Amino acid sequence: MKKLMFIMIAAVLVLTACGSKSNNANDTAGNNGNTAGGSKEVTVWAWDPNFNIAAMKLAKDAYATENPDVKVNIIEYAQADIIQKLNTGLNSGTTSGLPNVVLIEDYRAQSFLKAYPDSFYKMSDLIKSSDFADYKIASTSLDGVQYGVPFDSGVTGLYVRTDYLKDAGYSVADITNVDWDKFIEIGKAVKAKTGKFMLTQDPNDLGLIRMMIQSAGSWYLKSDGTTPDLKDNAALKDALTTYKKLMTADIVKVTSDWSQFLAGFNSGDVASVPTGNWISPSVKAEASQSGKWAVVPMPKLKNTASSVNASNLGGSSWYVLNIDGKEAAAEFLAKTMGSDVELYQKMVKQIGVIGTLKTAAEGEAYKAADEFFGGQKTVADFAAWTQKIPQVNYGMHTYAIEDILVPEVQNYMSGSDLDKVLANAQSQAESQLK
Amino acid sequence: MRNASVARSRLQPRWTGWLFISIAVLLICAFYFYPMIQALLLSFKTGTGAQIHYTGFDNYERLFSDKVFKTALKNTFLFLIIQVPVMIVLALFISVLLNDSKLKFKGFFRTAIFLPCVTSLVAYSVVFKYLFGNDGLINKLFLNLHLIHDPIQWITDPFWAKITIIIAITWRWTGYNMIFYLSALQNIDNSIYEAARIDGASPIRQFFKITVPLLKPIILFTSITSTIGTLQLFDEVVNITKGGPGNATMSISQYIYNLSFKYTPDFGYAATVSYSIVVLIILLSFIQFKAAGDSK
């Protein structure tokens, strides 16, 4: 019996020893940028190896030549995992496993900044807000303090198949700087003459609505970022009316996920793609369609005076967490993503990332012509449109409201009254988002 | 002297027994009961992220007026009411077929039907998503057989999306339940059937009068575990339909996930919704025990 007890106690000891060992391992793996030993470490979390991670690697290389003592570790996680880890880490107060720099989508930034005050490092002294596209500032700052380093532009464009348009009797100029009603009209002609759909839409994703209302400087929430603005939102009403016209015109191919969306234009099934500029690499992935595409400004809302031919979809920014090693991390970000014009040229050339640093747009790489788009200077166009995007405060509840809105929009599509539908959504949002 | 040693030997095993289970008890307390109590406390708090504070029964009031929660609850119950009985009957039917002593390639059939259970939830969900896509294999097949004129919107139509989820879960879990029935069937003495046959009972009568009553504890067990499983439905819905179209296939677990991680985190309210599942599981299990007439 004594032997057994001894074994058990030994087992417990070994277990606890293992436990503490893995804790130590965590501390070093967590890389809090301990300044011990003179070398500094900066850990970065981001998603998408072909876009964000690739851009961060360029920044790392650019920084390493001048600051060999700073070691940058880039770790790739899926976006959903980053959100989970950040939430659980910040909530529990155990910051040892968290990175120094993290990428956060602009739609979610306010919710992090507000839900975890003092968890993010103030960047106001290191970067100048006015150096970046205006529309990025509302989502990356809180109460006048700049927290995020604005990264990629989510500026939207209307990708069009010039050959299909020609077959339908239209030129690229006919669809440039138009409103959505004209777009639908052209879509009907394309469908009638070529048999091709004008665009794909996933009924579960209201990205199109978001683009429409931002083009008018409006959002699901009022400018305070917390009060739902659905019921009497004129731009949203106009957007939904237009959306219904579009969906019922028999010019939309319905999809249910991302790969079907990609297949839609890669297979030549649709004549246009209204979305963010980050889709360019995917459009160009189908090399056989080279020369058949052009990018024109996004259509605007016809009955909303404030609507312009520029909008945004997606986009994210870099944040420094307020934990050990923040100074080194902030310095690294400010010197690279925050000001390095050369770096942004490389990002455009090598990856296709269009940044929001204003001065970067004057560089050579931004003026290059793209043969795939018939020699159009797409990057320069996108950079110019980025400056026109109306600034809106995405606030804290973009996704929560969208989930409320999706079923209500479906009710509207199947015949319910628009005002009633929006009033319903408004009351739901008010009761849920306290 | 002798009495004392008896007392000691009685006492000693008791203490060592406690010592043996003490680690397990400690671990269960630390990793099950402590979080459960914390979650209960959390369910009385409201706020975003780290700024939460006690608000009494506010969350529970919100729960009863929450339209999304009601939709999620309705969806989950719909899955439950249709899917669990279909699956149980199917599993029972297949297991009786496979238990036939004259059947050849028994091992092959058993493996084939059990195989879905070893696939990863996410992997099979993704495969199902493509099978049931608008231009997926199922639609192509039906179109080519001229069973339908237009592709069925398996994933983008609220009604068909529910059907897709039900088909998916049934495919994944029928084999799992079948295994329980098969092992129970092997415990039924063959002489009972023999006696029934001599008395002239038809196979159908044998099934209802012998097989089903003798399998009752197992049927109860599988229906309870299936009910609990359906209440915790998450992977399939997230991967096949993302809860859509609209909220047409949203499950309670997915709503909890959304509240915690998709929206601005409100862990307090998410804990409240979690506790609604606890209450439901207790209630449903209780009803099933009562309905099965088992007083044990």
TrEMBL record, chain A:
Question: Cross-referenced SUPFAM superfamilies, in alphabetical order?
Answer: Periplasmic binding protein-like II
Q: Which Gene3D superfamilies match?
A: Periplasmic binding protein-like II
Q: Which domain of life is it from?
A: Bacteria
* Keyword entries, A-Z: Signal
The record ties this protein, via PANTHER family, to: ARABINOSE-BINDING PROTEIN-RELATED (PTHR43649), SUGAR BINDING SECRETED PROTEIN (PTHR43649:SF32)
* Phylogenetic classification of the source organism: Bacteria, Bacillati, Bacillota, Bacilli, Bacillales
Q: Which InterPro entries match?
A: Bact_solute-bd_prot1, SBP
Q: Which organism is it from?
A: Paenibacillus sacheonensis
Q: Where is the signal peptide?
A: 1-25
Q: What is this protein called?
A: Extracellular solute-binding protein
TrEMBL record, chain B:
Give the stretches traversing the membrane.
15-34, 77-99, 111-132, 214-234, 267-287
UniProt subcellular location: Cell membrane
Keywords (A to Z) from UniProt: Cell membrane, Membrane, Transmembrane, Transmembrane helix, Transport
Q: Which Gene3D superfamilies match?
A: MetI-like
Record's signal peptide: none
GO BP? transmembrane transport
InterPro entries given for it? ABC_transporter_permease, MetI-like, MetI-like_sf
User: Can you cite an annotated GO cellular component?
Assistant: plasma membrane
Membrane topology note: Multi-pass membrane protein
What region holds the ABC transmembrane type-1 domain? 73-288
Give the family from UniProt.
Answer: Belongs to the binding-protein-dependent transport system permease family.
Put simply, this protein is called ABC transporter permease subunit
